[in-house]
Amino acid sequence: xxxxxxxxxxxxxxxxxxxxxxxxxxxxxxxxxxxxxxxxxxxxxxxxxxxxxxxxxxxxxxxxxxxxxxxxxxxxxxxxxxxxxxxxxxxxxxxxxxxxxxxxxxxxxxxxxxxxxxxxxxxxxxxxxxxxxxxxxxxxxxxxx
Length: 145
Description:
This protein has 145 residues and is mostly helical.
């Protein structure tokens, strides 16, 4: 991954061009075209096409959501394993108290700074967005979809 730009909070969000720039707009335009068609030709056939267009758009969004949820589950598992190796006894016993969002945010923290951020997360002084922003030595995640 040497050719990748150095990742940080301001550039870590990743867009999938085929999904965000093609599939979503096509799904939205398909719904609008189907609605326009039913307005111009009110009958059962065009109305059914609106329902099919909506179903296709829901499928597109759900398929993407399922993939992201699987990634979040894997990240949660990876971070629990990582934290169990890095944290001392007082914090290690509280790994289960971290929320999914906190674990996902902590994945960017370097090994050296993760303990301090876990303490802040468990004390309730930082929300996940703030945890990510507080990371100084960023561990990149170039495989996120």
